[in-house]
Amino acid sequence: MSLEFRHIAHVYGQVRALEDVSFTAPAGEITCLLGASGCGKSTLLALAAGMLRLQQGSILLGGDVLADAGSSPPPEARPVGLVFQDGALFPHMTIAANIAFGLPKARHGEVESWLAQVGLAGLGTRYPHELSGGQQQRAALARAMAPGPRVLLMDEPFASVDIVLRRKLRRDCRIILRERGATTVLVTHDPAEALDIADRIAVMEAGRIVQFASPQELHDAPASAAVGAMFGGAQVVAARRGEGGFVTAFGLWPVDCALGPLPDATDLDLLVHADALDLAPDPQGLRVRDCHAQGKGVRVVLVAPDGTEITAETEKPVNAGQRYRAMPQAGSVRVFARR
Ligand SMILES: Nc1ncnc2c1ncn2[C@@H]1O[C@H](COP(=O)(O)OP(=O)(O)OP(=O)(O)O)[C@@H](O)[C@H]1O
């Protein structure tokens, strides 16, 4: 069952948290709301959950109105499951009792199979404080999913778990959610997490959706330089269209470094991947500020005379005492009109 947001706007007093947000989380898929702190992700989720009343717009579940400005059913009247950052298990109940909580008595026999599904077989008699953070989150996931909600809303569900376990947990979680066919909306501020778990990503900026696309589409065709820079080592370089190329703080870059059509604008943002920059010694070039071997390659931070920095990735360490020219490879730079 799809979850559709239509023209949602929300204010807290003078603060405009959401402005004309419209998108559809497709049935059975995982949709991530991704954006910096304060962009409105949690507000959107709280509106869907019924923890906030809708002020403007409507939310539809499977094509039927779930809530609008005239009617906003409370959370318990909505067919949605909720998972929050801290898991929020009931501390005085065992894990099994937590999972059984939302189930009718006749279905309590299903608890064991839920424990097994989330990798907690044999731990049902423990209390939440007797589990690790990751185990608690998995129990919270099982508790939210056991009643079979048509929609699952998750706000930073892996935030309290360490980075190694987090990766495993979200991959397990993706498999369980996809197998169950739950329509999921998950809030995160971490682009890597969104890429790892989502079928679709709604990228938010200051209360608006700036792009709604699959991870592949975001990688191949970001809507702006800022969106592109969120994913995978790319950086934004300010430039001006000039005679023979792009005038940047790092020198003149030839037009053939551009990928795809050029926008009809003078002020530009260039999206450049660190590993697409070639460095060549140049006494008039950029100063090396840092050179850090990371195992796979070497990260080199260079500084232009005006203090602007750029990062390159090279195979071998550079000479920190030398100056270098940084030149993007042909066809490696996406060019956007500056907004
Ligand atoms: N109860 C509130 N009263 C006033 N302003 C609020 C309230 N809740 C949120 N805001 C403001 O609304 C905007 C959106 O907040 P929201 O919590 O939805 O963002 P977010 O993207 O989820 O942020 P974070 O990642 O930090 O949780 C922010 O400017 C925030 O300061």
From TrEMBL:
The keyword DNA-binding is annotated on this UniProt entry: no
InterPro entries noted in UniProt: AAA+_ATPase, ABC_SmlMolc_Importer, ABC_transporter-like_ATP-bd, ABC_transporter-like_CS, ABC_transpr_FbpC, P-loop_NTPase
Pfam families assigned: ABC_tran (PF00005)
GO molecular function: ATP binding
Keyword Calcium belongs to the record: no
Domain ABC transporter: from-to ranges: 3-231
Gene3D superfamilies: P-loop containing nucleotide triphosphate hydrolases (3.40.50.300)
Keywords: ATP-binding, Cell membrane, Ion transport, Iron, Iron transport, Membrane, Nucleotide-binding, Transport
Transmembrane segments: none
Protein name, per record: ABC transporter ATP-binding protein
Organism of derivation: Erythrobacter fulvus
